[in-house]
């Protein structure tokens, strides 16, 4: 039996045998033999089997689906599904940490499906899902980017992604209000017009791989802190700012700066290209340091352009656990 591997091609029976070996497969019949959305038995795992440009036999609906340059996948449910359909509710509440949505894609009905990895929920159109109208979703493809030759083989034409360079800001530093910590239990959709316009992005895995983004984000905040203190007529303090992580990457923070009264300010910089809601990672050491030091600050740099050293910033002081929702990704296990 084949193993599940990225960018490998499979027919429907092979996909079934890998992901649901204990159930029966019937060719051209049943959920695994026919449908594009399949729930794996006894789980909240799903399989998307997507054919470009599919038209439904009954309602003659042509699916409008595709990928952006940032790896956002636009996907539509079957037209008979609504926002009250059990599968749709489960998709809206999908947690990519504890469950999987496996994406298989093909350009024509005669092709096998190519496995493109798993998906992360971004948002959905709360105005969709009416009579004979599908529910519209945006998903982040976690295994992004995909090599150009694979995209060409699959005939995938990328749509414009998150265009943060379109309106270059006039000021080098833009400080925004820090968002409030929100409940993870409820996910509201967005209005149709906003859904169409919104170029969502939430791929911290990709940002984490790009060390250049993190390094330049720290230099960006070093400049910001120097300017902030100089505007307060604290020139001597500005001269004593230290880039701690350049010397010791396990200190629990990146930059040692100063508050208005001269006391120390411990700054951890978290930088991503995505918008304000993009997830980011924090280490156990950084989390522990934030709990033990009241003058610990997260400087969250987002919509960052590393080549121009321009971005937006919000600042949170104190215990990270109190300011953000934390999701444990792995555990150390011992006897």
Shape: elongated
* Main pleated-sheet profile: 8 strands, mixed
**In terms of structural class, how would the helical and strand content be classed?**
alpha+beta
**In CATH's first tier, which class of the largest domain applies?**
Mainly Beta
Q: Which fold name is given in CATH as the topology of the largest domain?
A: PUA domain-like
Q: Beta-strand percentage?
A: 15-25%
Count helical runs.
Answer: 10
Order of helices and strands: EHHEEEEHEEEHEHHHHEEEHEEH
Q: Which percent range fits the helix content? A: 10-25%
In short, what is this structure?
The protein has helices spanning 12-19, 30-34, 86-92, 148-153, 192-197, 204-209, 211-231, 235-239, 284-292, 320-323; strands at residues 9-10, 37-39, 46-51, 66-67, 72-76, 101-106, 113-124, 136-141, 173-175, 242-243, 255-258, 264-271, 296-305, 310-317.
What are the defining features of this structure?
10 helices; elongated; PUA domain-like; 2 domains; single chain; 335 residues; alpha+beta
